Amino acid sequence: MAVNKVELANRALVLLGEEPIQSFQDENVQAQTASVLYDQCLLTLLSEYPWRFATKIVTLAQLTGDSVAQEWKNRHALPSDYLTLQEIEQTLDFQLFEGLEVHSNHTTLTLVYTYRPLEHWFPGYFQKYLVTQLAADMAYPITEDDRKAEYFQTLADVVGRKSRHIDSKSSPRSGVVDDGGVVSRRFS
């Protein structure tokens, strides 16, 4: 079975003792809560740690025109799927502008960043972390039980630590390399 948003949300609902939903458009509190909280929960988890499965490495496209800041000679476009910065390989001397551009004095920049992969690319340890954190986030709005919300947040914290540990032991600095339409895994 392909893993998708609804499947992951249903796992969280089952942990809470709730019935699964058919879609986020169902007319019940479970679907409405999952619909509101799912994407924010996922983006928060992806942004809190440089997950190896959600890492891309790309040479940035240089933009024409002058930088808005005089100390920078060059402008580079951030990728459309950019979520959070992990590293710019050539320099520590740069500035992000409005989350859309990188300005620096280098003509070529290689960006290492976190992106949002599709759910079917999530490894099992991250799926478990997302499900437990989503259960923690949905616990009070659905059950109105403070203790249940507290319990699932504690569980999510433990699962998160284990997930980061597992991820740190996965292949050394792997990422998806995007070379103008050709996407491949890179290990260095």
Strand order across the largest sheet: 4-7-1-8-9
Stretches where pLDDT falls below 50 for ≥5 residues?
Answer: 181-188
Number of helices: 4
Biggest sheet, open or closed, and with what strands and sense?
Answer: 5 strands, mixed
Kindly state the number of beta strands: 9
Distance between the amino and carboxyl termini: 33 Å
Kindly state the percentage of residues in helix: 25-40%
Mean pLDDT: 87
Secondary-structure-derived class? alpha+beta
Shape: elongated
3D architecture notes:
The structure is a single chain. By secondary structure, the protein is of the alpha+beta class. Helix content is 39%, strand content 24%. The protein has 4 helices and 9 strands. A 5-stranded mixed beta sheet has the order 4-7-1-8-9, covered by helices on one side. Helix 1 crosses helix 3, helix 2 (29-47) crosses helix 3 and helix 3 runs antiparallel to helix 4. The longest helix has 23 residues, at 146-168.
Helix-strand layout with pairing:
Layout: H1 5-15, H2 29-47, E1 55-59, E2 61-63, E3 74-77, E4 82-88, E5 94-97, E6 101-104, E7 110-115, H3 124-143, H4 146-168, E8 174-179, E9 182-187
Parallel strand pairs: 1-8
Antiparallel strand pairs: 1-7, 2-3, 3-6, 4-7, 5-6, 8-9
Helix pairs in contact: 1-3, 2-3, 3-4
Explain briefly what this protein structure is:
39% of the residues lie in helices and 24% in strands. The protein has 4 helices and 9 strands, in the order H-H-E-E-E-E-E-E-E-H-H-E-E. Mean pLDDT is 87; it is low at 181-188.
